[in-house]
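Justification of computing resources. Each target in the renewal requires a structure prediction run like the one illustrated here; the chain below, 299 residues long, is used simply to show the kind of job we budget for.
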Amino acid sequence: MKTHRDELEFLDRGGRPTLADMLDRMTFRPSRGSIELNGARMVLSRATFGADLQDELIRRFGEHEAMVLLLRLGYRNGREDAEFIRRAWPNLDIGDAFTAGTRIHMVTGTVRVETLHNDFDFKNNRFSGDFLWHDSVEAMEYARRHGRATKPVCWAQTGYAAGYASVFFSKLILYKEVSCAAMGDKSCRVVGKTVDDWGKDDPFVRIFLDEVLVTRPETSPRMRKEGVAQGSKAAGILEDMIVAPVHRELEQLARAGLSTLITGPDGAGCFKAAAWLHTRRFPSGQLHRVHGASDTLRR
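Resulting C-alpha cells:
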C-alpha cells in the first residue's frame, strides 16, 4: 500500500494498535478476492455506496427513518469493531483498545479524527469526549450531491462511535454531532457522554433509546400511510419475511395438527409465527396472546 511521505510519521502515533500496526496486519488475497485485517474480512468500496444508501433510505422511508436506520447500523458496526479489536489484540491496555476506535475509523478511510478532549474512567463509568472529524466521507458526499445541509448528516459515523465506546462501559455512551462539514463548517465536531450525563429526557437520547436500539419487528411510515388495502399487503409481506426461517417447520406442524408452544426472546417474531400457524389451522378462531409468557394457540 502506498503512503505519502508526509504521512509516514503519523502512522505510528497514538496507542496500540497504531495505524501502522493495522496496515501491517492488512492482507490482500487477489486469488480469493478478499481483503483481511488481522483475519477479519474487509471490503473496499467507493465512497458513493454509502451516499447512495442514505439517499435511497431517505427516498423510500423519509429522513427520520433513514437517520434511525443508519444510526442503528453504525451502532452495530461500532460494537463489532470494538469486539474485533479486543479479540485481535488481546493483550492491549483497555485504554489503547478504547482509543483504537478512532484509528480504525481512519484506516478504513471513513474520517480523520482529531481528539480535543477525551476523559474516561472505566471503573466508575465516567466518560466525556470532544472530537473533530476531518474529511468525513458522509459529510463530503452529502455536500457534493446536495449542497449545504441544514442539519448534521453523519448518521452512520455517529452511531458507530456510540456502539464502539459503549462496549467498554456498563452504561450507554452517546455522541452528538454538534457541527458538520456538510453544513459549511470547517469540520464535523462530535461530543460524547454517558446517557445519564445527557439526560433521559434529551430528544436525541429518546430517539436512540426508543427507536435506534429497539429489536421488535417494525413497519415503515410508507407502509403505514398506504391505506387499509396496501397496509394489509405490506403487513403480509413483512409477516412472510419474519416467518420465512421457520416456514417449513410451521407447515409440518399445521399438517400434523399438533399442539404447539412457540418460545423466544422479545422481538424474535414469536407472535407472528403463532399467528401464521393459527391462520392455517383455525381460520375461524381467535388467537389470544398471554403477556409475559410464550405465545400460544387457542381456539
